[in-house]
Amino acid sequence: MIKCATCAVKNKCLKDMKCDLIKPKYGKIKHVVGVISGKGGVGKSTVTGVLAVQLRKLGYKVGVLDGDITGPSMPRFFGLEKERTGYAPTDVENVFKFVPVETGLGIKTISMNFMIEEEEPLLWKGPVLGNVLMQLFTDTDWGELDYLLIDMPPGTGDVAMTIMEQFPVDYLVMVSTPQNMVSMIVQKVVNMAEKLEIPVKGVIQNLSYIKCNHCGEKMNVFTRNTAESQAEKMGLPLLAELPINPDFSEHLEAGQAERFAATNPEYDVIMEAFRNDEQEIYARNKAVKKKTIPFL
Ligand SMILES: Nc1ncnc2c1ncn2[C@@H]1O[C@H](COP(=O)(O)OP(=O)(O)OP(=O)(O)O)[C@@H](O)[C@H]1O
């Protein structure tokens, strides 16, 4: 990593050079996308998994970095909790790279839980966690990827900041639920992203409704407000709404979420948001950034 203080150009360079951002040593990644929610347990890892599956279904080469180092859940989503990361030699003697675990659909996945026993806690503090995560990003043999999705840790703490400041994140996808308490905290992350100049593509409203088994009617569980109006309050485009689906939970518990998300048309809706080209995404975020929408 080039440090500005020791760089010949110093601070006179264009900010867009992004030379202070880390890069993968063993691969090429076109788009790095952070999936984030200020609040824990709203379905961020589930949404990361669904997005990865849907992108893969469209034919993209996809990777997932489980950035929730102390509470990793991506191995469970993909039913890979018994798998272990491999290590491969590099051109440098005694230096090894991580070999990601591939899911059934060929999504390259890296998680701390591929390296330790599932129930083993990591008693590490902020800077160590950030450094380990950077190493997982830089030292993994990703090969060529169209998308790397990072399942970000909950909150606006050390690790989330490390990712936003030092990873080459193209944009963030916010995950929220239709509860004012949650959207208030998600708003903090939106504001954090704005301060750190990371575009936010929009919000995916998880647990948005439940569908009646008999008549198919959509019923709101947490609020009478629409997902659109909640997204508007956050000043973000609504990318998709996902229902509470007990079948999905059961497949998740059984390690079959990947197959469920790939074969259930209910989840195709999430991809509509990704059909826009990058230009459109950036133009939209610039416009969104200009509006300051106070939390109500
Ligand atoms: N749309 C959904 N339908 C049914 N169950 C869901 C849905 N979304 C999430 N869940 C369930 O809710 C629980 C929490 O989801 P998940 O682990 O994705 O949340 P998270 O925000 O990543 O949590 P953490 O803050 O711990 O990282 C999981 O057991 C998951 O199976």
Describe the structure.
This protein is α/β, with parallel strands linked by helices and 296 residues long. The protein has a single domain (28-290), classed as Rossmann fold. It is built from 9 helices and 12 strands. It has an 8-stranded mixed beta sheet with strand order 5-6-2-7-1-8-9-12, with helices on both faces. A two-stranded antiparallel ribbon has the order 3-4. Helix 1 packs across helix 8 (257-263) and helix 3 packs parallel to helix 4 (158-166). The longest helix has 16 residues, at 180-195. The protein binds adenosine-5'-triphosphate (ATP). InterPro entries: Mrp-like_CS (IPR000808), Mrp/NBP35_ATP-bd (IPR019591), NUBPL-like (IPR044304), P-loop_NTPase (IPR027417), YlxH/NBP35 (IPR033756). This is Iron-sulfur cluster carrier protein.
Query: Residue share in helices?
Result: 25-40%
Main CATH class: Alpha Beta
Strand-residue proportion: 15-25%
Poorly predicted residue ranges? 287-296
Radius of gyration: 19 Å
Q: What pattern of helices and strands is seen along the backbone? A: EHEHEEEEHEHEHEEEHEHHH
What spatial order of strands do you see in the largest sheet?
A: 5-6-2-7-1-8-9-12
CATH third-tier fold name: Rossmann fold
> In the residues, how many domains can be counted?
1
Taking the alpha carbons of the first and last residues, their distance comes to 42 Å
How many runs of DSSP E, i.e. beta strands? 12
InterPro entries: Mrp-like_CS, Mrp/NBP35_ATP-bd, NUBPL-like, P-loop_NTPase, YlxH/NBP35
Pfam families: ParA
Family: Belongs to the Mrp/NBP35 ATP-binding proteins family.
Protein name: Iron-sulfur cluster carrier protein
